[in-house]
Amino acid sequence: MNLPEAFKERMKNDLKNEYESFLESYEKEPTIALRVNTLKLSVEDFQETVDFCGENVAWCPTGFYYDGKKGNHPSSIAGLFYSQEPSAQIAAELADIQKGDKVLDLCAAPGGKSTQLAAKLQGEGLLISNEVVGNRAKILCENIERMGVKNAVVTNMYPEKMERIFSEFFDKIVVDAPCSGEGMFRKDDVAIQEWSIEHTQSCASRQLSILDSAYKMLAPGGKLVYSTCTFAKVENEEVAEKFAEKYSDITILEMHRLMPHRIEGEGHFSAVFKKSGEKQVEKLSSPTPAKKEMTEAYRLFEKENLNTKLDGNFVSFGDFLYLMPKEMISLDKIKCIRPGLQLGEVRKGRFIPSHHLCMALKKEDFKRLIALSDDEISLYTRGEAIIHSGEKGYGAMLYKEKYPIGWYKLSEGLAKNHYPKYLRKV
After folding, report:
1. Residue 350: which residues within 8 A CB-CB, separation 6 or more?
2. CA atoms lying within 13 Å on the CB side of residue 73
3. What local confidence, expressed as pLDDT, does residue 283 receive?
């Protein structure tokens, strides 16, 4: 691998007698891992469901190594796991998430850390997943949808604008900061081409600016995890130390480096901070309720097709009805892409359910079910109808007779396909 000379010289000075082992790690194939989605099933159930779950990732109880070629596997379509680089799994583990926390993933796309944080919240509290790049935010939404996350709000804002709205709001914040990407050299040739000493220094300035915004949004008593996928001390320890020096109420609790010659994974750095003081409870603005006709249409759909009743803040956003987490504030001044669980839309007075709703529900929440074989799942995800008899109405297609993968609508012996067109396999 053609590594930049200035990079090699710096790493040689930093690693000393470990340098040769570090260089040798570039001759190995990158390792690939998954993380079990415990919003849908336990680790034990996942291991019984699939045959490709390998050794556990040491720093993540729900992380396992595997061969990484399962994007079209039915268990992936059902949202039972998320493919995630093993070293990247450490940041959310360090965040100490508790059920009911208000959590911010400030640089969230494509969604690995957000869905990991959501699994720890177990449907309670609030997760705001923010991504400043629009097309990456769309991918983030799709992953949150597939993993069945109910309590995530996806925003598309710069941190300096968010800080004005969410002053001392969050219990936990994860900042997986944009960086020079040195830890990804083994996987990403573009990162090598774009690297320079000047680039690492400009990244450090940007990282400190992002941390300044995160500080203003972190509630007293809260924790902040800062992570990068680079080896550069100027972006790692030096950023962490400068941040802690700038704010007298910030303490560094721990710092971790994952190095590819020491572990099975890529390069990664994480620092955990705590903000001293006690959180003040304050009254915040409430969201505007959804249009009455939309809520009524959903309630009728719910009564006819589901065994569960959803409660919370129903909001209309664009053409869709959402269930917004009760901890979320008014959407005024917030550039929001998805304000919670997307329930569906009303067309000609009838409620049409969203894929997100199907993926967020359990088998027992549906009145009608069709268990598909793996071959039938392949047909279904291509958009084909399934011949089936039964009661008319909406129901869920199941993988392994347990896990929803999408809606159907039964009529005249045919289960009409409601798998989203943007997800269909050609």
Report:
1. 297
2. 18
3. 66
Q: Please give the mean pLDDT across all residues of the chain.
A: 96
Q: With pLDDT > 90 as the criterion, what percentage of the chain qualifies?
A: 93
With H, G, I as helix, E, B as strand and everything else as coil, classify residue 397. Answer: strand
Q: Summarize the chain as % helix, strand, coil (round to 5).
A: 35, 25, 40
Comparing C-alpha atoms, which of 364, 379, 237 is closest to residue 308? 364
Active-site amino acid positions: 229
Q: Note the pTM of the prediction, 2 decimals.
A: 0.97
8-state DSSP, 128:
E
Q: How many residues does the chain have?
A: 426
Per-residue pLDDT tens for 357-414? 999 999 999 999 999 999 999 999 999 999 998 999 999 999 999 999 999 999 989 9
Residue 120: is it exposed, middle or buried by C-beta count within 10 angstroms (0-12/13-18/19+)? buried
Q: Give DSSP secondary structure letters for 317-339.
A: ETTEEEEE-TT----TT--EEE-
Neighbouring CB atoms inside 10 A of 16's CB total 8
β-bridge mates for residue 223, sequence order: 172, 274
Tell me the C-alpha distance between 274 and 404, whole Å.
Answer: 39
Q: Which of 140, 74, 138, 134 is nearest to 113 (CA)?
A: 140
Q: How far is CA 318 from CA 23, 355, 418, in A?
A: 52, 17, 21
What end-to-end distance do the CA atoms of the chain give, in Å? 36
The torsion angles phi and psi of 291, rounded to 5 degrees, stand at: -60, 135
